Amino acid sequence: AQSVSQHNHHVILSEAASLELGCNYSYGGTVNLFWYVQYPGQHLQLLLKYFSGDPLVKGIKGFEAEFIKSKFSFNLRKPSVQWSDTAEYFCAVTGGYNKLIFGAGTRLAVHP
Amino acid sequence: GAGVSQTPSNKVTEKGKYVELRCDPISGHTALYWYRQSLGQGPEFLIYFQGTGAADDSGLPNDRFFAVRPEGSVSTLKIQRTERGDSAMYLCASSLQPDAGANVLTFGAGSRLTVL
């Protein structure tokens, strides 16, 4: 069965620090990968997605993620975070099934 | 509508009661998904519809949970004999086509259910 593991449950950073959130998945076949974000009081929104092609994916608000097939990973990065990036981030995967499987999420708090 | 609409936004009920949660997807979206999110966890898949039919209900935890989408648009998630463990945020999402791998899901704001 597919599963998604997010290594960090809580991350605290100062503004301008660099961010990397880990995501690993278990599925041996072709996968599609997503990062969703949930800002305080708001609904889940798509941050970026990988379907095929260039494994380095750029999303909104300066986020990017790199698909490394050999490591079953899809880590999220941002070179310089802002206070407004405070949110919960979810990695998700589909592969062979018609549904998204989510990780447990990482709560990011950015201090000004 | 412009987005996925869920009602009620909050529902407090007593153990043993029956609850209905409604989802109104984006107009024209054929696929509709229900997820449940407990505190500190990611969304957990419950069921998805292609049109009027439930294409995959493998995530429904037990037979107290049931969902319908009679006209291929609005969906209702029904929970019988609610238990305290059913307390969670129930999320609905829709997509233009059924293949969640190729299409982005748009989520609603959720219905927070509290069972006392």
Percentage of β-strand residues of chain B: over 45%
Major sheet size, sense and barrel closure of chain A: 6 strands, mixed
User: For the CA atoms, what is the radius of gyration of chain A?
Assistant: 13 Å
Distance between the termini of chain A: 41 Å
Secondary structure tally, helices of chain B: 0
Most extensive protein-chain contact, per-chain counts: A-B, 26 and 26 residues
DSSP summary: helix tally of chain A:
0
Oligomeric status: heterodimer
Helix content of chain A: under 10%
Query: Quick check: average pLDDT of chain A?
Result: 92
Tell me the series of helices and strands of chain A, N- to C-terminal.
Answer: EEEEEEEEEEEE
Enumerate the spans of chain A where pLDDT stays under 50 for 5 or more consecutive residues: none
Structural commentary:
The complex is a heterodimer of chains A (112) and B (116). Chain A is 0% helix and 51% strand. Chain A has 112 residues and is mainly β. In chain A, a hairpin with a 4-residue loop joins strand 8 (64-68) and strand 9. The termini of chain A are far apart. Chain A has strands at residues 3-5, 10-14, 19-21, 24-26, 32-38, 45-50, 56-58, 64-68, 73-78, 87-94, 101-102, 106-111. In chain A, the strands form three sheets. In chain A, strands 2, 5, 6, 10, 11 and 12 form a six-stranded mixed β-sheet that branches. The radius of gyration of chain A is 13 Å and the shape is globular. Chain A is built from no helices and twelve strands. With 116 residues, chain B is mainly beta. Helix content of chain B is 0%, strand content 47%. In chain B, the strands form two sheets. In chain B, strands 2, 4, 5, 6, 9, 10 and 11 form a seven-stranded mixed β-sheet that branches. Chain B has a four-stranded antiparallel β-sheet with strand order 1-3-8-7, with no helix packed on it. In chain B, a hairpin with a 2-residue loop joins strand 5 (44-50) and strand 6 (53-56). In chain B, 38% of the residues are buried. The mean pLDDT of chain B is 92. The chains are: A mainly beta (112), B mainly beta (116). The interface between A and B is medium-sized, with 26 and 26 residues.
